[in-house]
Every structure is written in structure tokens, then in C-alpha cells.
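User: Some background: our group keeps a shared notebook of sequences we're curious about, and every so often someone picks one and asks for a predicted structure to add to the entry. Today it's my turn. The entry only has the sequence so far, pasted here. Could you supply the structure so I can complete it?
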Amino acid sequence: MRRPELSSPAARAMAPVVAGIGFFAVLGLVLFGIAALMSGEQAQTTTFTPDRLQVGNVERWSETVNANGPVLFPGLGTTSGERTIVLDHNGSDPQRGWIVYYAYPADRDASCAVVQIEGTDDFTDCEQRTVNVADLAPPTNGEYPVIEDRKVLFIDLGDRPLDPTTTVAS
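Assistant: Of course. Here's the predicted structure to add to the notebook entry:
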């Protein structure tokens, strides 16, 4: 029995092209299936803000805070800017004594923001009271200072339950 042949030149030219397209389509589907099986049903949640803030060299910041008072970092870790953190340093050792506070008095809520009295450890709150840095609200979402390699100071911004997130299926 004789094998069938394609009689027209167009058919003979198109046959390998169609076979190649079919091969790559099947290969693409197989690879897509493998990738889907490997990824499973895991979901990844990302926030639009960093997890921590790099402040800088621990020795320079220690000198700055000891000479000029605490430093305010407005709107950290949020896209809307409502969380302001105060970084303070106590003692002469740049590796120890770092502490963070929220920029409102401990006996008030976040709507009572403070303004620093320049060059001091004191602040004026929304009721024009003078409060010391130690009287500010302690962090409640896990914010704390971190020193890496005995050189670089970071502020870990902790949990941010009100931040917008995106869940991406992987």
C-alpha cells in the first residue's frame, strides 16, 4: 500500500508549519500543568510598605539624639501616613538604650499628636501640655529598634493590621 502524499505545493509547505505549531502548543500546555502542580494552592500576601526602616549609622544617630533630643519619623509603615514614631536613645553606649514611641501621649489617643520642643526631650501635645519623651505611648504593633552588624540602626515596623494588602495566588 502506498503512503498518502500531499499533492499541492501549498499543502506540502504548510504541513511542517502546522505540525510545529501543534508540537509547541502541546509542550506549552504540559509546562503550564507542571507549573500549576508545583505551585499548589498557596497564596502570598504582600504589603505596599517596607517591613523596616533603615535609619543609618548607629554611632552618628546616637550622637545626634544625645545632642538634639529624640527624632520623629512621620507616617512610617503606612500608605496613609497616620503612624509617626519617635526614636530615642538613653545612655552612652550606641549599641544599647534605643527605644521607640508613638508620637502621642500615653494617656491620649493617636489624634493627640505631639510637637517636639526643639533640641530637648520634651514635646507639646494637643492640649498644650509639656510631656517628656518617656510619657509618650509605647508601640503596640511590635515596632522596635534593631542594630545589625554593630553598625546600622533599623526600626522594625512590626505588624500593620490596617495596611492595604494584595493577595497573589502562586
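Suggested note for the entry: The CA atoms of residues 17 and 23 lie 10 Å apart. The helical segments are 9-39, 58-68.
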